[in-house]
Q: What sequence folds into this?
């Protein structure tokens, strides 16, 4: 399944990298690489994630790549990475 990246998801990845790289650019890059690999894995099995409890749609799903929640939307033709949210943060419904 083709993966599309929302502007929000890209901004979240940049923010995660910037935050972690204050301590270690190596660990920051490893974290980003791990999150991207997880999205690529989801594209092979998009139903593997659970429906996001904050939304009322079975098409908006998530998987955990601790400590992050990877939020994505499934359509018939593609998967859209919507957001990367730290597990301790609340998911805003407008994201």
A:
């Amino acid at each position: 399944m083709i993966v599309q990246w929302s502007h929000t998801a890209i901004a979240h990845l940049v923010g995660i990298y910037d935050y972690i790289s204050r301590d270690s650019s190596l660990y920051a890059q490893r974290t980003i690489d791990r999150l991207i690999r997880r999205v690529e894995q989801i594209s092979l099995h998009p139903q593997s994630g659970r429906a996001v409890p904050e939304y009322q749609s079975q098409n908006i799903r998530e998987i955990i790549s601790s400590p992050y929640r990877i939020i994505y939307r499934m359509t018939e033709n593609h998967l859209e990475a919507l957001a990367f949210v730290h597990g301790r943060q609340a998911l805003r419904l407008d994201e």
About this structure: The mean pLDDT is 92. The longest strand covers residues 78-86. The chain has one domain: 2-86. The first helix runs from residue 7 to 21.
